Amino acid sequence: MKRFLKSLLAKYILIILIAIFLIQAAYFIIIFVFFNLMEDTDSPEDGQNSFTEIEAEWHREAHQVITKDDIKHLFEEWQEVYPDASMFRVNGDGVLDVQSNLQENLPDKWDVTYTAQFLKSHYEGDPFTVVAFTGEHEEDGFIVFQLPREVMQPYGQRLFNQYSWAIIMLTMGIVLLFILLSLWFFRGIRKRLVHLQEAMEIRDIDGMPILIEEKKQDEIGDLEKSFNRMVQELRESREREQEEEQLRKELIANLSHDLRTPLTKINAQAYALQKMDLPIEAKHSLKLTSASIEDVDKLIENLMSYTLLMASKYKKDLKEIDMSRFLRQYLAAWYPVFEKEGFTVDVDIVPFEQNTWKVDSLWLSRILDNLLQNVLRHAADGKYIAVRTESSELNDAIVVIDKGKGMQVDTEQKGAGIGLSIVDMMVKGMHLDWEIDSTEQGTTIKIIREKRAGN
């Protein structure tokens, strides 16, 4: 129950109940004031009567007055009881001679036609009108009593008729208050949700979401708690992942070091055996063994380099070098290797328009080593290798081409994947790009420098 009272649903129900209470209270006060506390002019102590009683009393007293003074005295008595009433007499000659609190313009001389018209227009109308003949004979004239009908209404009813607009305005005010409270309520909800959304998009230096402040114990507060719990779990997971990654890197580095030591010894023994007088088949087997040992050594070296690159511990020193001169010097060391394997070597190094590249020469050498070693491993059947330079409007590129069966075809030599991963990390580490296009007719790899980047 305590948790429910702190929820957003409970708060909104409270707003609705407050609005309903205010409406009911307002109408109760109106009814109480207008219909209970206000004076009712029909009460006996006021000396006033109903319309029927007024009409009967007026006729009765009209028969008892004849002279002008009697009529004036009658008008004064009735005026005290009915201050808002209008009274006048038209004598037997049709002359308006006595009047009291007259509210409308009346002619001084009345004829039969005007008298009939007056009676017709005021019958059952407002003001309430009573016409009575004075004295015992009709030729003595008549007296008229007029009273606004609203005067005879209860005072509360008259106030209600006069101030009904206030009731409407009060109702509209309460409804408006309810709307404003609802807007304020939902504005607070929206503000907190937007704050939570912004917090989800903010990242710290490790790329992780940040913790947010838990302000209230409601549904959004629960959401904030869940978000903070998720962030905490992500951070713990990231820490475990980093610890495992570090252990994995250390394990690979240790294994690489431990494996290279026995491989060196095995290679030395194989070299010693090759100098002995052995059968041809034995020498051939030793040659294949030595080649396999070299391949394993290169794989271990690649694994070690990959581990160092992943740990950002592989030293990089970017310097401006003459690219065409670097390529010629570099390829001069590889030319005998391909010539020994019977490759056709096609080298076409043309200086670039912007021939100076800002790179790490050791990293670039390692990149080219991996690419050329892959040619020896995977494209030996094509017996062709080409290294060229080419330029376009957008970029300059170093191109390595072979005519092997492509990297999709399985070969006896493995290890191209990790070598190309090293190429990818080193190329991007020097702010360059690269492309590879491998089919059954051969493979083309480009090391690209964007001209607009400028080096």
- CATH topology of the largest domain: the name is Heat Shock Protein 90
Fraction of residues in helices?
A: 55-70%
The name of the CATH architecture of the largest domain is 2-Layer Sandwich
Number of helices: 12
The CATH superfamily label of the largest domain reads Histidine kinase-like ATPase, C-terminal domain
The CATH C-level class name of the largest domain? Alpha Beta
Distance linking N and C termini: 69 Å
In one word, what is the shape? rod-shaped
Structural notes for this entry:
There is one protein chain. By secondary structure, the chain is of the alpha+beta class. It has four domains: 73 residues; 110 residues, Beta-Lactamase; 107 residues, Helix Hairpins, CATH 1.10.287; 135 residues, 2-Layer Sandwich (Heat Shock Protein 90), CATH 3.30.565. The chain contains twelve helices and eleven strands. The strands form three sheets. The protein has a five-stranded mixed sheet. Strand 8 and strand 9 form a beta hairpin. Helix 2 crosses helix 6 and helix 9 runs parallel beside helix 12. It is rod-shaped.
Structure summary:
With 455 residues, this protein is α+β, with helices and mostly antiparallel strands. The protein has helices spanning 2-5, 8-37, 51-62, 68-81, 112-122, 155-162, 164-201, 219-274, 280-310, 323-340, 361-378, 416-429; strands spanning 86-90, 96-100, 128-133, 142-147, 319-322, 344-348, 356-359, 384-391, 395-402, 433-439, 442-450.
Features of the shown structure:
about 55% helix, four-stranded antiparallel sheet, 11 strands, 4 domains, 12 helices, about 450 residues, alpha+beta, Beta-Lactamase, Helix Hairpins, five-stranded mixed sheet
